[in-house]
Amino acid sequence: MKAMVLAAGLGLRMRPLTLMRAKPVLPVLDRPLLQFTLERLAKAGVRDVVVNLHHLPDSVIDAVGTGRGLGLRIHYSFEREILGTGGGPRAARDFFGREPFLLVNGDVYFDFELRALVARHSASGALATLALRAQPDTGAYSSVVTDRRGRILSIGGRPRPGEGTVSMFAGVHVLGAQLLDRLPPGPSDSVRDLYVPLLREGAHLAGVRCTGAWYDFGRPALYRDAQLRMLRGRGRGQILLGSRARIAAAAVVRRSVLGAGSRVARAARVGRSVLWPDAAVEHGARVAGSIVTSGGVVRTGERAEDVIVLPLAALGPGDRAGVERHGDMAWVGIE
Questions:
Q1: Contact 33/18 with Cβ under 8 angstroms?
Q2: 8 A C-beta contact, residue 236 and residue 253
Q3: Domain 2-216 carries which CATH code?
Q4: Upper half-sphere CA count for residue 123 (Cβ side, 13 Å)
Q5: CATH 2.60.40 fits 220-333, yes or no
Q6: Which of 120, 204, 248, 299 has CB 3.0 to 4.6 Å from 266, enough for a Cys bridge?
Q7: CA-to-CA separations, 334 to 16, 195, 221, 289, 321, in angstroms, rounded
Q8: How many Å apart are CA 23 and CA 107, to the nearest integer?
Q9: How big is the CA angle at 256 (ends 253 and 260), to the nearest 5 degrees?
Q10: Helices (H), the chain
Q11: What are the C-alpha distances in Å from 122 to residues 100, 174, 195, 215?
C-alpha cells in the first residue's frame, strides 16, 4: 500500500516557530514530528510515501531524507502554490496507481492502528474511510455524523445536518485513488470538494472511531501542552533529556523536554517548558511554561514565563510587531 503525507502548509497559526522549520518537522519530544508519522505508516506495511512540499521544503527533506532508515521509500512532490488537501494528492495522482492509499495530515501526532483502519475500509466497500475521534467540547472541529453502521451522513453539517453519532475527523483517511480523478487540477479541499459532493450523491463514505493518542499542534500553546502530557510516566521530574543535553549542578528541571545539545546552567530553573536542540538557559535564569528554540538563549538573571524565545534574526521585518526584544533575542507571548 502507498501513502501520502500532507506537509506543504505555511503553519501560520504556529508562528513564529514555523518561521524556522516547516510545521510537520517541528521538534516533538526531541524528534521531528514527521518521523512519528512515517513510523506509523511503515508499521502498517506501507513502503512508498509521497510527501508534498512548499514552505521551507529543505527543513522537511533534511529531517527525513529518503526514508531508508525507516524502511520506506520517500518521494517528494513540490508545489509552486499550495494545492490543499485535495489538490496536493491530485497533483501526485500518477504515484498512486489504481489502489486505495492512506492520506495523512503531517501536522498532527497520532498513534492509531492503521492496519485495522485499512482492513475496515476494504471490508466496508466504502469509497473512502475516515479515522474519527470523540468530538471534544471546544467546538473547534467540524463534526462528522455517522449512523450506527459507521456510514457517514454529514461532515460539518454538509450536505445537510444529520442525526447519529457525532465525532471529529482526525486527519487520517483511506480512499480509492480513482476518487482523485473527480478533482480538477489546481487547489482543492478533500472535504469540501470531494467528500461533501459524494455525500450529496448518496455515495458510501465510512467513519471509524480510532483509539490511541492524538494531539493537534494548531497553536504554540497546544504544541507545548501536548508534549508535557506526553511526558507522563517518565518518573520523578518527568524529563526528556536529548543526547548531549546538559543540566548543570544546582540547576532544577521539572516536567520539560530538553532537546539534543541544549543546556541548563548552574542554579537555573526550568519547568513546564520545551527546549529545542541547542537552546540554552544561562546561570540563574528562570524558564516556566515556555518554548526556547534552537539558538535561543535565556540569559543570566532573566525570567521567561509563557513565551517563545528565539533569535531575533529568525524574524522578518513584518514579524517583529509586538515582539519583546532582549538583545539579539526575541520573546513572543504564547497563545
A1: no
A2: no
A3: 3.90.550.10
A4: 10
A5: no
A6: 248
A7: 10, 35, 6, 9, 15
A8: 6
A9: 95
A10: 33-43, 57-64, 84-91, 93-96, 114-124, 196-200, 220-230
A11: 9, 9, 18, 27
Per-residue pLDDT tens digits for 143-189: 899 999 999 999 988 988 878 989 999 999 999 999 999 999 999 99
Q: Which three cell numbers stand for residue 54?
A: 512548499
pLDDT at 78 over 60: yes
Give the three-class secondary structure for 212.
Answer: coil
Q: Is 55 exposed, middle or buried (0-12, 13-18, 19+ CB in 10 A)?
A: buried
Q: How far apart are CA 217 and CA 223, in angstroms?
A: 5
Asked if 38 and 137 touch (Cβ cutoff 8 Å), the reply is no
- Tallying the residues shown for the chain, one arrives at 335
Domain with CATH 2.160.10 in the chain: 220-333
Is residue 236 over pLDDT 70? no
The bridge status of strand 214-216 relative to strand 143-146 is: unpaired
